[in-house]
Design goal:
The protein is α/β, with parallel strands linked by helices and 429 residues long. It has three domains: 1-153, GTP1/OBG domain (Spo0b-associated Gtp-binding Protein, Chain: A, Distorted Sandwich); 159-337, 3-Layer(aba) Sandwich (Rossmann fold), CATH 3.40.50; 349-420, 2-Layer Sandwich (GMP Synthetase, Chain A, domain 3), CATH 3.30.300.350. 23% of the residues lie in helices and 22% in strands. The protein has eight helices and 18 strands. It has a six-stranded mixed β-sheet, with helices on both faces. The termini are far apart.
């Protein structure tokens, strides 16, 4: 069954907890700290599989979980990292979270870590220092990312076929490519998008045929709104008009209006108008319909007979320069994007933080790195809480709190937890 949308729940693995432990050696009552670090939680990775052309495997809204990391062991043994989960998707899959596009897997070898595994917590062996020979602090493993995602498949094709039902789109696809679409002399023969590859004078083009559109398709009538997304990526549209129709101009206008109403740049794409089934028209009828369409479109109108293979080379000759131009523009855009540095790429971006008031004697600390420390802190351990307070001092948070008017004993929320703030360094009076 063909499916081009799906909703999945993904959860990356939790990082393993760091171990709090000490060596037990013969003839030595108290050995040194030997607690190992926890392993990283497994990632959830979306990866393009060229053998797939549908999202049907994920229509039942599955839950996809990566493996948790193992806790640290004795003798400073690091816990094993959790196994990553690879989720195979067809090329052209777009990923949305909260209606925002977060990934577009439009390349043959594309893959993306869509949910990152949690970092393993440090064992107490990690915290040894000349002034701290027996630390009793071990971190908890960080939770892995959990997301509810919507997947949408947009076929990756360079040429899209549009038109009313029974305009001849599937027939054209079958004679110029290797595709084998269902063909019938009745409307809505095509119920799913079809792809085919055409080789023309040494050039290879990917062509997509979508189910026929009707008036109101952009708003949900017929099958159009479900499938128009599959021609959004195309370089050029071939707008097919049934030559045997009573009013070819009206038929052309219906599709033109739907492309405008749908938006997303479809109406702005290069579009060739093609009068199909020309072998079924008398010379005078053909001339009259060509003239009417030329006047309505304001551009060249091509004619074709798929049955007699007439007009196909002329159409493909006109298509290739448009595709070539668009390919060059896309490659230039990719190169430019690759050279762009975003804020998150800058050194120290992850260490930035801010403090805001949350009412009387309460404050909220925002900052990716500091919130990560809080998530890994075992708040049942006095030593671990003291370490977090020490971090707030060393990073300048305490200085900023004092500047904002914070007092000893105020609560500072970091993530889901709160610590009691003091202007004094932990362990001092």
């Amino acid at each position: 069954m063909f499916a081009d949308t799906a909703v999945i729940d993904v959860r990356a693995g939790k990082g393993g907890d760091g171990r709090l432990g000490f060596r037990h050696e013969k003839y030595r009552a108290k050995g040194g700290p030997d607690g190992g670090d926890g392993g990283r939680g497994g990632n959830v990775i979306l990866k393009v599989d060229h053998n797939l052309n549908t999202l049907s495997a994920y229509r039942s809204s599955p839950k996809i979980n990566a493996e948790d990391g193992q806790s640290g062991g004795a003798n400073r043994m690091k816990g094993r990292s959790g196994e990553d989960v690879i989720v195979a998707v067809p090329q052209g899959t777009q990923v949305y979270e909260n209606a925002q596009l977060i990934a577009d897997l439009d390349a043959v070898d594309a893959e993306v870590v869509i949910a990152s595994g949690g970092r393993g917590g440090f064992g107490n062996a990690h915290f040894t220092a000349s002034t701290r020979q027996a630390p009793r602090t071990a971190e908890l493993g960080e939770a892995g990312e959990a997301k509810k995602l919507k997947l949408e498949l947009k076929m990756v094709a360079e040429v899209g076929l549009v038109g009313l039902p029974n305009a001849g789109k599937s027939t054209l696809l079958s004679v110029i490519t290797n595709a084998k679409p269902e063909i019938g002399d009745y409307p809505f023969t095509t119920l799913i998008p079809n792809l085919g590859v055409v080789d023309h004078h040494g050039h290879s083009l990917l062509v997509a045929d979508i189910p026929g559109l009707i008036e109101g398709a952009h708003a949900g009538k017929g099958l159009g709104d479900e499938f128009l997304r599959h021609v959004e990526r195309t370089s050029v549209l071939l707008h097919l008009v049934d030559g045997l129709a009573a009013d070819v101009v009206a038929d052309w206008g219906t599709i033109a209006a739907e492309l405008i109403s749908y938006g997303r740049g479809l109406a702005d794409k290069p579009r060739l108008t093609i009068l199909t089934k020309s072998d079924g028209l008398t010379p005078s009828d053909l001339e009259a319909k060509l003239q009417a369409l030329t006047t309505a479109t304001g551009g060249q109108v091509y004619t074709m007979s798929a049955q007699a293979h007439r007009g196909l080379d002329e159409i493909l000759d006109a298509v290739w320069p448009l595709v070539e131009t668009d390919r060059a523009a896309r490659e230039a855009h990719i190169a430019e994007a690759a050279a762009t540095i975003t804020l998150s790429d800058l050194p120290g971006a992850a260490e930035r933080w801010s403090v805001v008031s949350e009412g009387e004697r309460a404050w909220r600390l925002h900052g990716e790195k500091l919130e990560g420390f809080a998530r890994r802190t075992n708040f049942e351990s006095e030593d671990a809480v003291r370490r977090l307070q020490d971090i707030l001092h060393k990073t300048g948070v305490s200085r900023q709190l004092k500047k904002l008017g914070a007092q000893d004993g105020d609560r500072v929320f970091v993530g889901d937890h709160a610590v009691e703030w003091s202007d004094r360094l932990p362990g001092t009076r």
